[in-house]
Amino acid sequence: MGKNFEELDWRQTPLGEITLRRRWDRTFEKDVFEIKLNDEFLMSSLFTVAEEEVARHALAELSGTDFDVAVGGLGLGYTALTVLEDPCVRSLAVIDALGEVIEWHEQGLIPAGKALTADPRCTLVHGDFFAMARSPQGSALDRTFDAIIVDIDHSPRHLLHPSNADFYEPQGTRRLAAMLRPGGVFGLWSNDPPDDEYVAALQQSFAQVKPEIVIFANPLQDREATATVYIATTLT
């Protein structure tokens, strides 16, 4: 049994105060890791199904081997870990705007960090994913990928920062599609129901767009919870 509660680190960042904490959850009988930004919970190791499923759904659309993948958003590392479970993945670049989160993984404060930093296919990149997508020259996105998976904002409408908004507009989807190889896949996690306006923006740049609802149990509230995974593919 772990400690009932432990604040593992606290940092002041350009986005505000970010905190990593670990607490013992009596319902699940295990340690739970949580990241908070100011007073808002960004992520919890209690609920990781949607973060894992966005990676699985995206990679399932690919054919062949030796996939090069980029993930926007590191967090607790569950999306990246799921990508690396696929033996067809040749390389993975995980981009996060918070160097503090990358440090937590490198220092082993977050459990996924040991596996991510030990896998030679995986590179953790400190940087603004949205800025790189807007102007990829000289950045980690200055190449083409088989899959790009994003788990940063809460949804296309519920953003961590207003400057991210153009990524979800038609000009943003066009830039995104240009970074993918023929038959490439874009995957996005969202905590909101499917957004028709965002689907329409994706359809302007991608050959096929599928918003899929992921259902998972929420024992804390004794109900089912849902999230949306958007999967968009380019022409082969």
Structure description:
This protein is an alpha/beta fold. It has one domain (47-233): 3-Layer(aba) Sandwich (Rossmann fold). Helix content is 24%, strand content 38%. The protein contains seven helices and eleven strands. The strands form two sheets. A seven-stranded mixed sheet has the order 7-6-5-8-9-11-10, with helices on both faces. Strand 8 (145-150), helix 6 (170-178) and strand 9 form a beta-alpha-beta unit. Helix 3 packs across helix 4 (112-118). The mean pLDDT is 93.
Topology:
Layout: E1 5-13, E2 16-25, E3 30-37, E4 40-44, H1 49-60, E5 67-72, H2 78-84, E6 89-96, H3 99-106, H4 112-118, E7 122-126, H5 129-134, E8 145-150, H6 170-178, E9 180-190, H7 196-203, E10 208-218, E11 223-233
Parallel strand pairs: 5-6, 5-8, 6-7, 8-9
Antiparallel strand pairs: 1-2, 2-3, 3-4, 9-11, 10-11
